[in-house]
Amino acid sequence: MCEEHRTEFALQSSVAGRRGERAGPCKPAEARRAVERAVAARYRAADRTCDADALSDALLVASELATNAILHGGGITDFRVDVLEPGTDVRVSVCDRSDALPVVSPPVDRQGRHRVGGHGWPIVCRLAHDVRVTDLPAGGKCITAVVPLS
User: Fold this and answer.
1) Strand partners, 92
2) How far is residue 127 from each of residues 26, 31, 40, 53, measured CA to CA in Å?
3) Helix or strand or coil: residue 40?
4) pTM of the predicted model over 0.85
5) Residues 6+ positions from 149 with CB-CB distance below 8 Å
6) What is the pLDDT of residues 39-96, one digit of tens each?
7) What is the DSSP letter of 114?
8) Which residues contact 41 (CB under 8 A, 6 or more apart)?
9) Please, which residues bridge with residue 133 across strands?
10) Can you tell me the distance from the alpha carbon of 102 to that of 58, in angstroms, rounded to the nearest whole number?
């Protein structure tokens, strides 16, 4: 999916995103904490434990999506996290103000100098088994990544 962006049109955007209000986490650390709380609550309710490496992958994806929304998308306008039944995947959605699709930057610039950064989108694509980019009706986009927890 990441090589060929899958773009969909969302029929509804969040109320908070339309009104410009704060909609959940607005920093990468807050996104990671939200994912950690959601996963912990679901696993605690099922009296199970989550694989630590899989949880680390989900936290990294949430952090990268939040960072990219801040750096390239004009800020986070909405954030959602859901642990899917039966607790084998976590779905993280981060919306921003930009209509631009994510891109992979070459590791070096035209002068042959190594670039700093540019690793977030490839990380998301590698760790998630489903990534979707959805156009929002009022402008902007929502990127949703589903990361396995096992």
Assistant:
1) 81, 145
2) 22, 17, 20, 11
3) helix
4) no
5) 39, 50, 51, 54, 55, 58, 83, 87, 88, 89, 90
6) 999 999 888 889 999 999 999 999 999 999 999 999 999 999 999 987 789 999 999 9
7) B
8) 83
9) 7, 143
10) 19
